[in-house]
Design brief:
The structure is a homodimer.
Chain A lengths: L26 H12 L4 H10 L7 E3 H8 L3 H13 L3 E5 L2 E4 L1 H13 L1 H16 L3 E9 L2 E8 L3 E4 L2 E4 L7 E2 L5 H8 L3 H17 L6 H14 L2 E4 L6 E9 L6 E10 H5 L3 H18 L2
Antiparallel strand pairs in A: 1-3, 2-3, 4-5, 4-11, 5-8, 6-7, 9-10, 10-11
Helix pairs in contact in A: 3-4, 6-11, 7-9
The first copy, chain A, binds a DNA duplex (30 and 30 nucleotides) through helix 4.
DNA sequence: GGCGGTTTCCCGTATTTTGGGAAAAATAGG
DNA sequence: CCTATTTTTCCCAAAATACGGGAAACCGCC
């Protein structure tokens, strides 16, 4: 039996979380944030905060901006920047301007090479994606308490709602942990203690995401998903899209490692055999698990 | 006029530099390295050295290995690991085992989104690659003093020497700064003071790469390349491959930002009009420059 | 529920980071 | 090629905090 999540028209379509953190902050707020960061955090943590300052809207930052933003002195700002540069995590773009560095791309390649989930995904996803026209398949992975898309297969855009909705550059797209089919499929398969711990730690977020106001409600909701073995959402990520997601388990089946998600036009989805879509995706997930190193 | 670089049969084919740093070290050597690192380097630099420990052969590391390798105490090792984990640069894979973290993939996506060279490359390279069968086109970028491949277009493998030679997962592949057509094309276009500085700093490497034993020789060699506007190598990267590379300049032409390289089977290359290949690549580079934001 | 290994916490000491300014580089302009 | 401006490094005393050792807490696992 396939259950559908209720469409919540009050929630706006999910923004690209990577583009979320807005750069707009009043000078007063900056100072406050700087002081707050300053307290308690060691220099190690402070240095790494520099990386958080880079956003799609601001991919190149000047050192004096860093000083202002994080409340460092010139010396400290340059010290941090130099350490990060020497490690290759930053690189100076031009005079006084720094951007993220080559080491990041290099390390990411290392992860790509070493990631068994990605390897398996590249073998399994193409066929899966091709079976349903005008649909793409996403492979998402769980890191500690972060979900992000590691691979996309299929067309770059879905034709839906009279337009083209593209999910370009999917790899690296962070997904909200408590929203969206891909995340929920993973979340629901987490062991009970971890769900409990997550609830205790991030109760507010869970409630805001509509997962439930108390632990019992959250458990019930996730248990339902777990039993179904899938999550289907229509119109949540985007009004005109539908998503079906199933968990991907480790080879021995002992734990979830990610999720496999098909995204398609909501209109197309209405005409499909939902049960069959899920079955096919689940078969893909099993095949994927079996290919894990 | 197109000049060919002499084939140096004494040098072995370039290994994947990302896989270079071998994990094999005697215990004594480890201790020495640890002590050496320890001296002079601040905690910031020391912490970032943790990232260097991850290799394709050893993508998951235990904390006690870190202690041993870098000479840290348990406390320090955990402090560093925790800071890196909190920043998302590491993630614990399982009990006691840590791997590179989701933030790296996320940051890399940010770079992909923000990199004008990549944007332009994705628009220009496909056509370029398709024009010559059994060839691929590489777009490489210069960061400070590091060259790495940022994009590959065309087939995943070249049919050459009776086999298939594949350059898979090209993005993030670091290239030796003083070897290879792609790097030399960039190097030769660097302003003279930078070349001088590089020579003073890394004279030994330059000599080892056959660039020249003294500054005059290096200058002459690079000047020749710069005048040609291209570098062609046959059998250097791989006995059966040939590469033609041209520099890519910034939109205003004031500086090099990378290189555009065609890789093909050496046998195929012999039958081609070399001049025409270069001309086409140069046209591509110009087009690319014009598309830079 | 108990067990081995992992991770955090605690705290005095001493190493190091810190910050302000001045020197040195690098860059842009003449 | 040389000068003016900005960026970056260097220097050093004072203060902050990273360090290390061990114990306690916290896992996951059997």
């Amino acid at each position: 039996m396939v259950t559908f999540m209720p469409l919540d028209p009050t929630r706006p379509p999910l923004p690209d979380p990577a583009q979320a953190a807005p750069a707009a902050e009043a000078t007063a707020a900056e100072a406050t944030a700087a002081e707050a960061n300053r307290a308690g955090a060691g220099s190690l943590v402070r240095m790494l905060e520099v990386l958080d300052q880079f956003t799609p809207d601001l991919p190149v930052i000047r050192v004096d901006d860093l000083q202002a933003r994080l409340g460092y002195t010139k010396s400290t700002a340059y010290r941090y920047v130099k350490a990060l540069c020497d490690a290759g995590l930053l690189a100076q773009a031009s005079q006084g301007r720094y951007s993220l560095g080559p080491r990041i791309v290099e390390l990411e390649r290392l992860m790509r090479i070493a990631d068994p989930l990605l390897q398996a995904g590249e073998a399994v996803l193409p066929e899966l994606a091709a079976e349903v026209p005008n649909s793409m398949v996403l492979l998402c992975s769980l890191y500690r308490d972060k979900v992000l898309c590691v691979h996309r297969e299929g067309p770059e855009a879905i034709v839906a709602g009279g337009g083209r909705i593209s999910i370009l550059r999917a790899r690296g797209l962070p997904l909200p942990l408590f929203q969206g089919a891909a995340s929920l499929a993973i979340l629901a398969s987490l062991p009970a203690p971890r769900i409990r711990a997550l609830f205790l730690q991030r109760q507010a977020e869970m409630a805001a995401a509509g997962l439930g106001k108390d632990l019992a409600a959250v458990r019930q909701r996730l248990e339902r998903i777990r039993r179904d073995g899938q999550v289907t959402t229509v119109g949540r990520f985007n009004r005109h899209l539908a998503a079906v997601s199933v968990p991907v388990r480790s080879r021995d089946g002992s734990q979830v490692v990610g999720s496999l998600t098909r995204i398609m036009a909501a209109d197309d989805f209405a005409g499909q055999d939902a049960e069959r879509l899920v079955k096919r995706l689940q078969a893909g997930a099993v095949q994927l698990s079996s290919k894990l190193a």
